[in-house]
């Protein structure tokens, strides 16, 4: 395969920009998301999108573009200064809370509206002017990642060595391949870093080339925008980012970094509830009470061996 070299300057650039698509309608969480951005739903006391922004900052990202849509204004408000609130907390001596509030405003954030939800690839394309001729990170808000080294930082480290696009993947149960984009891996060039032959969108288990599924972090070179501008609609009649990356892989190397940390899927109700419980169990304010509650609830469920019913169910 005739790969295009990146030896003309773009590979010398540091990765300092991230794009967070947040224009989805959040229909899985209706009615809660009818008037509230899904990305603002809290895990204990912190909106999910704040976890994504914090991962970016811990990885050395300096500029973040959030691609929004209708009803997403609360995201902008959350990361904007609230002088009245800050003054109130300061006057009452609530320095710990003041620090938490100020942390959300000391970020170099930009926003752009995706007027029509035409797919993830289309959302990323809205970032072309923001990104310019630089490598950048795409971070999806449905995936919270936990590892000693942030996953975004791992991808940046790989880029510093390869100067190529690198997609985060994770080993999943073989029976679940039809739920994910799956890579067809080539040689393992470094521990956990694979050349990618091609991508297969949601294959049945007997058709899957591997159990390595694409998860919500991508490091991309700016050439992806040329591909996206000419990309035909794919699954769901939308511009699919995976399709564009597969096309890019025909002219530039694309690697896959296998993530070995903990991934929290907050894209559906059950995953969101599990994540809330796990984060609650490490939250300093509630962890002891929550642990005791779970233990007692477990005893009650074991004793009854049936679902707990509310008082309304007995009326």
TrEMBL record:
Listed transmembrane segments: none
Pathway where this protein functions: Carbohydrate metabolism; nucleotide-sugar metabolism
EC number: 2.7.7.9
Coiled coil stretches, renumbered: none
Annotated catalysed reactions: alpha-D-glucose 1-phosphate + UTP + H(+) = UDP-alpha-D-glucose + diphosphate
Keyword Lipid biosynthesis: no
Record domain Nucleotidyl transferase: where: 17-274
GO biological process, one term: UDP-alpha-D-glucose metabolic process
Keyword Cell membrane in annotation: no
Keyword line: Nucleotidyltransferase, Transferase
Highest rank taxon of the organism: Bacteria
GO molecular function term, any single one: UTP:glucose-1-phosphate uridylyltransferase activity
Gene3D superfamilies: Spore Coat Polysaccharide Biosynthesis Protein SpsA, Chain A
CDD domains documented for this protein: UGPase_prokaryotic
Family that this chain belongs to: Belongs to the UDPGP type 2 family.
Protein name (database record): UTP--glucose-1-phosphate uridylyltransferase
Origin species: Enterococcus italicus (strain DSM 15952 / CCUG 50447 / LMG 22039 / TP 1.5)
């Amino acid at each position: 395969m005739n790969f295009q070299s990146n030896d003309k300057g773009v590979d010398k650039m540091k990765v300092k920009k991230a794009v967070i698509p947040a224009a989805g309608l959040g229909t899985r969480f209706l009615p809660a998301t009818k008037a509230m951005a899904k990305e603002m739903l809290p895990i204990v006391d912190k909106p999910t999108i704040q976890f994504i922004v914090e991962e970016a900052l811990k990885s050395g990202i300096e500029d973040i573009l959030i691609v929004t849509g209708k009803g997403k204004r609360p995201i902008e408000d959350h990361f904007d200064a609230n002088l009245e609130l800050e003054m109130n907390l300061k006057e009452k001596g609530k320095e710990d809370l003041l620090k938490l509030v100020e942390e959300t405003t000391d970020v170099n954030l930009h926003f752009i509206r995706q007027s029509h939800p035409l797919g993830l690839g289309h959302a990323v394309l809205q970032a072309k002017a923001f990104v310019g001729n630089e490598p950048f990170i795409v971070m999806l808000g449905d995936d919270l990642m936990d590892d000693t080294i942030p996953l975004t930082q791992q991808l940046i480290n790989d880029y510093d060595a390869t100067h190529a696009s690198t997609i985060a993947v994770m080993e999943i149960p073989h029976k679940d391949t039809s739920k994910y984009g799956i890579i067809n891996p080539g040689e393992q060039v470094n521990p956990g870093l694979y050349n990618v032959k091609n991508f297969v969108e949601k294959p049945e288990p007997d058709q899957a080339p591997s159990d390595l599924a694409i998860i919500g972090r991508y490091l991309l070179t700016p050439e992806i925008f040329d591909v996206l501008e000419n990309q035909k609609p794919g699954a769901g009649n939308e511009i699919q980012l995976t399709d564009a990356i597969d096309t890019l892989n025909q002219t530039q190397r694309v690697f896959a970094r296998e993530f070995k940390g903990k991934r929290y899927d907050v894209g559906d109700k059950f995953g969101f509830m599990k994540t809330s419980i796990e984060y609650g169990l490490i939250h300093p304010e509630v962890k002891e009470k929550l642990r005791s509650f779970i233990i007692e609830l477990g005893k009650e469920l074991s004793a009854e061996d049936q679902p707990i019913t509310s008082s309304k169910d007995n009326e």
